[in-house]
Amino acid sequence: MAGEAVIIGSGAAGSVVAWELARNGWSVTVLERGRHLREGLGERPSGELGTRYGSDEIKNVSRAMGFPDGLLEPYTTRTQAEAADGTARSARGALGQLGAAVGGTTLHYNAKTPRFWKQDFTQLSDHGPVEGAQVADWPIGYDDLEPYYDEVERRVGVQGDIDAMPSRTLEQSPRSAGFEMPPNPVPYVGSLLGEGARRASYTTYPQPAAVNSTGFDGRPACNSCGLCSGYGCPINARGDALVSWLNPAVGTGRVRVIDRAFVHRIDTTRKGHRARRVRYLDMSGREHAVSGDIVVVAGSPINTARLLLLSATGAHPDGLGNGSGQLGRNMMFHNLTLAVAVFGEDVHPLRSQSNALQLDDLVGPFTGPEVKALGVPYVKGAMVQVGGAMPLLESAELYAGLVGYGQAHKELMKAALTYTRIGGSAMWHEDLPQADNRVDLDPEVTDFLGIPSARITYSPHQHEKAAAMLLGPRMQAFHQLAPGAIASAFVPYPVISDGATYSAHLGGTARMGEDPATSVCDGSGRMHEVDNVYVADASTFPTFPGFNPTLTIMANALRIARGIAGGSRQGGS
Amino acid sequence: MASGGGDRWVPRRVLLRGTGAVAVAVFAPLTGGGMRQAVAVPRGSAEQPRYLTRAELETLRAVVDRIVPEDHATPGGARSGCAEAIDGLLGAFREDPPLIFAGAPFSDRAGSPVNHFAEFLPLDSYEETAWRLRIEGSRDRPERTFNGPVTGFQTIYRDGLAALDEAAVGGRRFADLTAPEQDLLLATSRDPAVTALMDVAVPHTFEFQYGAPEYGGNADLAAWDYTGYPGDVQPRGWTREEVEEPDRHAGPVAPLPGVVPADELVAALALAHPDAVRGVLARSGGLLSGLRGEVGSAVAAAKRHGAVRGEEGGSTDGW
């Protein structure tokens, strides 16, 4: 039966839930701390929305439009060792925060849409526990998600080439159909790196992406400008939470979006079994409240955990629904290992939908003696995103780190290497869940409204360090083998730093599971201890396999929302 | 923060060559930028700065010209407008809309008949609060000191520029020193006001030198010419052939610049990935000293792990 819902967060999870509930007749209020950036929301077709985004490095990178401000809404961080020493925090600021805007981080995401694999849902059963980690099976399997993957891909519009996908990929992430659109042109540098991969007995293929290669949804085809991750698409060629879900949801007339709404508390009934209302502050610090039959928390892992911790009461002394003690724990960031080839010719790597190719040979798990020698029972890596390059101002920042300033810096800038001579790859690899990697409330630092900031305690597990050292050289090898490569390198971040890499890929903090003693939500996303509060974002993920998570966030949110609405699948619409 | 700032990262021969070049620099007329129309936005001028005094602006012009030195036919930070652009940032709120976010979605450099970048975007109250705090500092106002005092860019520049003028001995101001003297002073000063200035002035100068000209720097698009950078290419983008094929117009490539050891350069190029640099920027706080520490530790780790290879798969010695 249709009711009223309050959704906190308008990103990949919240927008999908809003759409599904609205089309089933629910009245929905979406509370978003970020700003409206797409003029005409709910009033115009998605192809006709305005935008504040352009191919402008100062606006998007240096000044971080569409992100939370590091002064007004800081996070604080520390490593596990610092926490053990009693250090309250070692850094404060804009530390790897996701975007804050209506539509969430998807306004400027890279839009790569791999599926998780079957093996990811049964990791504990298949491989047993790992010391120092809290590996768990998911309460659902790939088969439960598959129809939602299909439906999400059709709505956001995914490009890809099923015929080019390796057989293991298709066995592990079976598809009932091909893709909505053929892939973008494969960049020249991708062909060279693809050949290097072939020489190393690896396979590359066009990476599935929610990027139009043909007109779709009234929006144009991508023209390979190369400025994707971190940039709003100036020509609106990308499927995202806003154009694909939230805009049509608002268009039903049953969804209202309140931007710059800083939610700080979910009030519950006296015994704590039900949420009564959601409280938020506006920019001037004025208090507001919204009531609904259900509350859906979709703030992304750090902020979902922060809100639930802020909502502690007598009945929930350690945070809302935290009888398990797991709320805020198992904070997972994908870890980053990079490789690069330097070429002896101009390979114009920026002329491309960014990192257009995918390589799955390093997903794992790897279990040989070389893995045991690294002190872990197995290593899971990730898909590799092949073909990266960098625009000018970011290059200037990088070289400032290398040589400072002055003539040496200018010589590096003149050499134009980062957009003419390199082909790079990134592997955002699996992060095992740990109890001590956690979000809690900073005891002193607050946001500009006086609400305690999220504090992140994080260090990579030996598993992540082992993955970087085992797989980094394999990444480098296929770069070195690329035709025309004159040099190569890899950089294994988990062994460089004991802190977080700061990925835009976040998971955990409110894991779902069958046992209320060890998980925060059940398989439907509902909190074990609060009847009408659901968590719909990546906070629910028990583990965090090495694939870009947005497609799975959307598919899982759609599954959770359909469970709430009791609705049926809808083909098109 | 592993390997911090200091001049030990810059090989001596580079310093010598760089300063030598500047000392004899001939200001050749720029001819390369004619094919693209640069747009002048309202900004302060040398005669009428927006925030700084004329004397402060003169010192700042000298500073940005050490950050991006003038050489041969390519302009430095001063001639590119970086000092006036920084002054524009310091006085961003004297314009309406403030000079924070350029407009969207297109400039007129790649097929759009209208330059949307030229008109800045109105800010909402959150954005205004954030950028006023960053530029003006907390100024003892209770609503701005929720996490303690914040020193704004205005104060950092004003104090740092004054400290530089004070450090220029012999009755001279910083701008009166020779370029090698200026370089030496900047590299050796332990004055916290100077360190704080360079922490923000270096990233700001690079922003304005290499970013879109609508922010006030990159005059005549000269920086995009001497770097061979195509600039913003929307809405034209690239054709299938331009994406898939080798560039028939590309000339032979130059050797890798010798300003840093090749293995360090190649390791740094592995970081030339937007995802990696966002992390570097976040952890560095956007400050020069933070960037040095972040990139330095990553490059050192790559070398430590033998993670850099040259052409024959061996070491990079000698190429």
Automatic annotation (TrEMBL), chain A:
<keyword id="KW-0285">Flavoprotein</keyword>
<dbReference type="Pfam" id="PF05199">
    <property type="entry name" value="GMC_oxred_C"/>
</dbReference>
<dbReference type="InterPro" id="IPR036188">
    <property type="entry name" value="FAD/NAD-bd_sf"/>
</dbReference>
<protein>
    <submittedName>
        <fullName>GMC family oxidoreductase</fullName>
    </submittedName>
</protein>
<dbReference type="GO" id="GO:0050660">
    <property type="term" value="F:flavin adenine dinucleotide binding"/>
</dbReference>
<comment type="similarity">
    <text>Belongs to the GMC oxidoreductase family.</text>
</comment>
<dbReference type="InterPro" id="IPR051473">
    <property type="entry name" value="P2Ox-like"/>
</dbReference>
<dbReference type="Pfam" id="PF00732">
    <property type="entry name" value="GMC_oxred_N"/>
</dbReference>
<feature type="domain" description="FAD dependent oxidoreductase">
    <location>
        <begin position="5"/>
        <end position="53"/>
    </location>
</feature>
<dbReference type="GO" id="GO:0016614">
    <property type="term" value="F:oxidoreductase activity, acting on CH-OH group of donors"/>
</dbReference>
<feature type="domain" description="Glucose-methanol-choline oxidoreductase C-terminal">
    <location>
        <begin position="433"/>
        <end position="557"/>
    </location>
</feature>
<feature type="domain" description="Glucose-methanol-choline oxidoreductase N-terminal">
    <location>
        <begin position="220"/>
        <end position="334"/>
    </location>
</feature>
<dbReference type="InterPro" id="IPR006076">
    <property type="entry name" value="FAD-dep_OxRdtase"/>
</dbReference>
<dbReference type="InterPro" id="IPR007867">
    <property type="entry name" value="GMC_OxRtase_C"/>
</dbReference>
<keyword id="KW-0560">Oxidoreductase</keyword>
<dbReference type="InterPro" id="IPR000172">
    <property type="entry name" value="GMC_OxRdtase_N"/>
</dbReference>
<dbReference type="Pfam" id="PF01266">
    <property type="entry name" value="DAO"/>
</dbReference>
<keyword id="KW-0274">FAD</keyword>
Automatic annotation (TrEMBL), chain B:
<protein>
    <submittedName>
        <fullName>Gluconate 2-dehydrogenase subunit 3 family protein</fullName>
    </submittedName>
</protein>
<dbReference type="InterPro" id="IPR006311">
    <property type="entry name" value="TAT_signal"/>
</dbReference>
<dbReference type="InterPro" id="IPR027056">
    <property type="entry name" value="Gluconate_2DH_su3"/>
</dbReference>
<dbReference type="Pfam" id="PF13618">
    <property type="entry name" value="Gluconate_2-dh3"/>
</dbReference>
